[in-house]
Automatic annotation (TrEMBL):
<dbReference type="InterPro" id="IPR008389">
    <property type="entry name" value="ATPase_V0-cplx_e1/e2_su"/>
</dbReference>
<comment type="similarity">
    <text>Belongs to the V-ATPase e1/e2 subunit family.</text>
</comment>
<dbReference type="GO" id="GO:0046961">
    <property type="term" value="F:proton-transporting ATPase activity, rotational mechanism"/>
</dbReference>
<keyword id="KW-1133">Transmembrane helix</keyword>
<keyword id="KW-0375">Hydrogen ion transport</keyword>
<feature type="transmembrane region" description="Helical">
    <location>
        <begin position="37"/>
        <end position="57"/>
    </location>
</feature>
<dbReference type="GO" id="GO:0033179">
    <property type="term" value="C:proton-transporting V-type ATPase, V0 domain"/>
</dbReference>
<keyword id="KW-0812">Transmembrane</keyword>
<dbReference type="Pfam" id="PF05493">
    <property type="entry name" value="ATP_synt_H"/>
</dbReference>
<keyword id="KW-0472">Membrane</keyword>
<dbReference type="GO" id="GO:0033181">
    <property type="term" value="C:plasma membrane proton-transporting V-type ATPase complex"/>
</dbReference>
<keyword id="KW-0813">Transport</keyword>
<protein>
    <recommendedName>
        <fullName>V-type proton ATPase subunit</fullName>
    </recommendedName>
</protein>
<keyword id="KW-0406">Ion transport</keyword>
<dbReference type="GO" id="GO:0012505">
    <property type="term" value="C:endomembrane system"/>
</dbReference>
<feature type="transmembrane region" description="Helical">
    <location>
        <begin position="6"/>
        <end position="25"/>
    </location>
</feature>
Length: 102
């Protein structure tokens, strides 16, 4: 039930835009082009929305990384962060402004 309501509401909205939009265009030399643009906009926006909505409906399960690999990545990340802080402190650059010297 929770899937049908947003699907019906958004589809109905883009149907209204695609059907009533071209009827509101004033007469002029480019009336047909403007009507086509409005219909194509409604179709493309609805298609984009439905693809994103359906994609998020049942997300794929992410990769399952072994605990050993996660620990190794954590150690590498922590070492890299500590090295960056030490280099910044030893080089005499202020942490508040990257361009000023201490």
């Amino acid at each position: 039930m929770g899937v049908i309501i947003p699907l019906a509401v958004v589809t109905g909205f883009w149907l209204v835009v695609g059907i009533l939009g071209p009827l509101l265009v004033r007469k002029g030399p480019n009336k047909g082009i403007i009507q086509t643009m409005i219909v194509m906009t409604a179709v493309c926006c609805w298609a984009f929305w439905i693809l994103v909505y359906l994609h998020q409906l049942n997300p794929l399960i992410g990769p399952q990384i072994p605990v050993k690999t996660i620990r190794w990545l954590g150690e590498k990340y922590i070492r890299t962060c500590y090295r960056s802080v030490i280099v910044v402190l030893l080089s005499g650059i202020s942490l508040h402004s990257p361009f000023s010297l201490v």
